[in-house]
Amino acid sequence: MKTLAEMDYSVLQQCMHCGMCLPTCPTYVETKEERNSPRGRISLMRAIADGELDVTKAFGEEMYYCLGCLACTSACPAGVNYAELFETARAEVEKTGVLASPKRDAIRWFALRLVFTRPRLLRVIGRLLRFWQVSGAQTAFRKLGLTRLLPANLRKLEPQAPAVMAKFSHQLIKPVERAVAVKRRVAVLTGCVQDLVFADVNRATVDVLLANGCEVHTPPVQPCCGSLHAHNGDMESARELARRQLELFDPFTFDAIISNAGGCGSHLRHYDHLLADDPVYAARAGEWSRKLRDVSEYLVEIGFRKPTGAAKEGTCVTYHESCHLCHGQKVSRQPRDILKAIPGVELRECAEATWCCGSAGIYNITQPETSSWLQERKLGHLRTTGATVVATANPGCHLQIENGFKAAGETTSVVHPIVLLARAYQAESAL
Amino acid sequence: MPQGYTELPGELVRALGEKNVLTALEDVLPYGFDGTAALKQRPLAVVFVHDAAQVSAVLKLARTHRVPVVTRGSGTGLSGGSVPVKNAVVLCLVKMDRILEVDTANLTLRAEAGAITQKIFDAAEAVGLFYPPDPGSMKISTIGGNVAENSGGLRGLKYGVTRDYVMGLEVVLADGSICWLGSKCVKDVAGYNLRDLFIGSEGTLGVVTQVLLKLLPKPAARQTLLATFARMDAAAETVSAIIAAKIIPCTLEFLDRKTIQCVEDFAKVGLPRDAEAILLIETDGHPAAVADEAAKVEELCRAHGATSVRRAADAAESAQLATARRSAFSALARLRPTTILEDVTVPRSELAGMIREVEAIAAKHRLNIATFGHFGDGNLHPTILTDERDTEEMHRVELAFADIVEATLARGGTITGEHGVGLAKKGFLRKQLGDASHDLLKIVKRSLDPEGLLNPGKIFDL
Questions:
Q1: Which of A64, A121, A426, B393 falls 20 to 30 Å from B16 in CA-CA distance?
Q2: Which residue of B has its CA nearest to A77?
Q3: Residue B136 counted as domain residue
Q4: What pLDDT digit, counting tens, does each position of A143-176 carry?
Q5: Is there a single domain that holds both residue B137 and residue B173?
Q6: What is the domain extent for residue A332?
Q7: What residues of A are in contact with residue B135 (Cβ under 8 Å)?
Q8: Which residues, other chains included, contact B448 with Cβ-Cβ below 8 Å and sequence gap of 6+?
Q9: Domain count of the fold of chain A
Q10: Looking at residue B176, which CATH number applies to its domain?
Q11: Rounded CA separation B223/B319 (Å)
Q12: What percentage of chain B has pLDDT greater than the value 70?
């Protein structure tokens, strides 16, 4: 892994500090201090590369205060590759250990090295969590007031734990499913959180692809894509997981590889860059990146069939853009095209639709204050639209927004746009 | 380090509170630059203030300890006006960002100096009024910074620059006294016009803390046209023809081939990548007048060799094109690591000749120069695309810059149309102004800032 001093200096130099990123950066808007802005952070990275600054604890904290939402990359006329700078900087923070503490190290090992590298173990944990949630244990625990015994940060997080589904993706989707008339061959990536908590989104993804002439391959056990690792400074694990993914799917045999989670897709698209120096996998990774598509993007690209079945009469929907779908993958119009194609759906635009909701991977755990400030800001804009349904295409955003509405006792529902499309297709047979 | 420098941060903390004073390396490094290329200097400390009284307290402390003060808004300036000097305190006004009053009876708006230009525009528009100055960085630039640099923008041709909209200022002087200059009166000739003295003074005479702005009624209609040319000359001649036909569009912008390609790479608004030049023209006002002007402008474009003229379909498309144009400077950074932007302005009759001269200078010094700018104002932004780490090339950049200035002055032009002198252009100022005028600047500076602590070394050296 190259350090800031070793990396291509022109990536750092690309920032000409014009300040166009400032008004789009949530942390800068929160504090109005340059250090908390994209160009400020880049200037610190460059100072490290120039030997004017060491990798200090304050630098490390700053890199983790950044949401990694990449809004700056959409705003940047100069085309700065902030994603690469940010991942390099976080990796260096981890390598130098300026933030290390026994507790932090243990949590990182458990999450990054243990759970999110072993899909079967993750499913076991999911099963246990599901049992806890449906057996009445959770309810009893809460009623008895035992949550008070939890440490403060866990106590705040406990109600946010996502409801695990009864069936995971492999129980809902066969390894290969074929449309009546097959025109395309695609692979579907089921993700980690998506697999446990939103297996229905994965099922809907397969359904809409089937409805559009695809032969859909969905291997039952899939590794984590490594985005969590790359965003948290563990590039070694990220590369290993990418290799495993490329072992499982041969990109040369598919027309497209489909992701339905904004955060995963943003990382998955860059396997070419991640494995550029890998003697064995570089070519495969290149082909993979050429074929990787977000599901909405792919459907629009192939000219998806407009459904004739209505979702529900007069459903008023607003669309919240996942940061890594709109800023990371530049997919912004397509999910709206899909929503607008559904009979009965009225799409109402929301202010700051491209702003982060505060979920940002595990940011809501590491920076709860900024996260909840962003959550409130987001909910406010969503409410203003008067929409009863919020469509969004990333599990983190989905949970963050859903939890926000739930905590406020509101009934606004959150749904993946593809689920609405799948329902509309389903409704056709009832016509 | 002189003693004052070690004592001052502690006293600033006592005056402003701990969270408003930054001294840690990680905190102050990002204040070492503004939007200007290749200039940087780490400050001693950065302070945030919330009202004029706090500004006054900071200036008094700085005076006691003889520490220089560099005032800063969002740090988007393009002449080094807010780049710190050595051991300076950066006085940052971004947290004074309230719009205090929109007076629809008098068509004025009063805001704190740190208010964002875009927010001022929006606040006016919300009540059917219009604040015209629109510098490229208006999304984040502060009104105080606009006043300090007397910023222009795309609408300068018809509507003028920041100065034309400032009716009053609250200014804190070097000794800490707070004064109000100007009023809401349309006519006001009481005493010297000191308000104008502070506009464009680049933080060297005092600190602007509040601004009273004039607003206009919002134009009822606007129409944007995009004309494509196969030759730069043809575009320049079209501009002269439009002006000669006694048409003053609101905006008359020019982009050359390199700029078109970079802007299109970023903004994807359908600019013609293969064009040698484009003109972005906007007319606004009464609907009938707009329709008439747009038709005449289109005719003139075609008569002078435009290969196509596209009309924006609606307000959204117009806004998109203007936003794309505003990104031109930053978008050019896609080509080379360092982007050195010039701001020379010539009388409009000299435009075509000046463009040719810039091309010749680029060839002479073997440099990559892209040009865009406010053609209607004669305001060019030749942008030298280079690499600050290449000392040999940077030397050629200096020579080319000097040649561009020389050519500009020979044509009766100015070294800066809207970005200010700052650090970047002070070496050329005496040549433009002449000895007597240049010395007059120093007389004014000494009388208002006898200790020379306000943004020292900017515009000129004492």
A1: A64
A2: B331
A3: yes
A4: 777 777 666 666 666 777 788 888 888 999 999 9
A5: yes
A6: 315-430
A7: none
A8: B173, B174, B205, B206
A9: 4
A10: 3.30.465.10
A11: 10
A12: 99
Q: Is A53 on the interface with B (CB under 8 A)?
A: yes
Domain boundary among A160, A184, A205: A160
Q: pLDDT band at A313, cuts 50/70/90?
A: low
Mean confidence (pLDDT) of chain A: 92
How is residue A323 written in tokens? 């940061």
Query: What integer pLDDT is reported at residue A141 of this predicted model?
Result: 77
Domain with B250, as residue range(s), is 221-330
A161, exposed or middle or buried, with CB in 10 Å at 0-12, 13-18, 19+?
Answer: middle
Tokens of A209: 């692809």
> Which CATH number belongs to the domain containing residue A341 in this structure?
3.40.50
Q: Do A177 and A294 belong to one domain?
A: yes
Question: Is the domain of A185 the same as that of A294?
Answer: yes
* Same domain, yes or no: A294 and A180: yes
Same domain, yes or no, for B73 and B43? yes
Tokens found for residue B384: 């030298």
Alpha carbon B9 to chain centroid, angstroms? 31
What is the tally of structural domains in chain B?
3
Kindly report the nearest CA distance between residue A366 and chain B, in angstroms: 21
Q: Which of B33, B267, B327 has the CB atom closest to A17's CB atom?
A: B33
* Lookup result for tokens 């709860």: A368
A4 inside domain = no
Closest CB to B29 among A44, A76, A77: A44
CB-based contact B140 A23, cutoff 8 Å: yes
Q: Within a 10 A sphere around the Cβ of B126, how many other Cβ atoms? A: 9
In a domain, A276, yes or no: yes
User: Considering the domain boundaries, does residue B18 fall inside one?
Assistant: yes
Taking the whole predicted model, whether its pTM rises above 0.90 is answered as yes
Q: How many CA atoms lie within 13 A of A201 on its CB side?
A: 28
Sheet with A292-294, side-by-side order of all strands: A176-178, A214-217, A184-188, A256-259, A292-294
Give the strand order in the sheet containing B221-229: B306-311, B221-229, B277-285, B251-256, B368-374, B379-386, B338-341
Domain CATH code at residue B41: 3.30.43.10
Q: Same structural domain for residues A217 and A111?
A: no
Residue of B nearest to A31 (CA): B95
Residues of chain A neighbouring B387 (CB-CB closer than 8 A): 13
Q: Write out pLDDT tens, residues A229-263.
A: 998 889 999 999 999 999 999 999 999 999 999 99
Q: In this structure, are B103 and B85 located in the same domain?
A: no
Question: Which of these three, B47, B71, B92, is where a domain ends?
Answer: B92
Kindly state whether residue B443 falls inside one of the protein's structural domains: no
Cβ–Cβ < 8 Å for A363, A67: yes
Domain end (from B192, B217, B242): B217
- Gap from B157 CA to chain A (nearest CA, Å): 24
Q: Which CATH number goes with the domain that contains B303?
A: 3.30.70.3450
In CATH, what number is assigned to the domain containing residue A64?
A: 1.10.1060.10
Q: Is residue A285, in this structure, part of any structural domain at all?
A: yes
ipTM strictly over 0.85?
A: yes
